Amino acid sequence: MSKDKKKPVSDLLKSVANLGLKFTEGLVENKVQNQLVEDGIKLVFPLVRQLLEVLNDDNPANAEQVRAIILKWVNTDLANFVEKVADHVLTNTKDPAHFAMLDFAQLNAVRILRVYTDENADNKAQLDAYFKETIQGEELEELAKFAVLGPILGKANASPDLKVFVEKALDFVFEAVRK
Questions:
Q1: pLDDT tens digits for 130-140?
Q2: What is the dihedral sign for C-alpha 129, 133, 134, 135?
Q3: pTM for this structure?
Q4: How far is CA 84 from CA 36, 126, 142, 169, in A?
Q5: Predicted local distance difference test score (pLDDT) of residue 145
Q6: Helices H, strands E: what count in the chain?
Q7: Which among 44, 51, 109, 40 is positioned nearest to 81, based on CA atoms?
Q8: Crossing angle of the two packed helices 123-136 and 160-178, in degrees rounded to 10
Q9: Where are the domains of the chain?
Q10: Which of 80, 81, 130, 170 is the most exposed place for a label (fewest CB within 10 A)?
Q11: For residue 95, with 0-12 CB atoms within 10 Å meaning exposed, 13-18 middle and 19 or more buried, which class applies?
Q12: CA–CA separation, 104 vs 140, rounded Å?
């Protein structure tokens, strides 16, 4: 690094920040009673340590380094944590229709998050392919029938004939989408 360019984070600041992180981690481990909450809080400590490291190194490309670290963190650590939280919620969801909707939402949220934070910069092409796959997939059809229309028709006290008609209409729509 040239003598004209200073590190955004000095060695002293990095050392003090790391001590603060270590102290705070210990507090979290001792004080937080909910494991999921503790895991969520502790998720940021490695990220901050990595950011301190790159802001203290001799590489002047700080913006690029920070962006790469944050995107990788979101794509892996944060996305994995979102899946873990969703699994916890799903484990405690008793209604099968609610379970199906939450599972579908979680899966799609994490996949879209990963598209926007992966190494491939062509997000539009990835999303187009993903949405085409999703729309043509059997999971969406089952979700529409079982978790959305089933409860709606049930609450409306729809006749068995109407339920069969709606299901056949959905079959026709999804067959057309898959062509």
A1: 999 998 888 89
A2: positive
A3: 0.77
A4: 8, 24, 24, 36
A5: 87
A6: 10, 0
A7: 40
A8: 140
A9: 1-60
A10: 80
A11: exposed
A12: 8
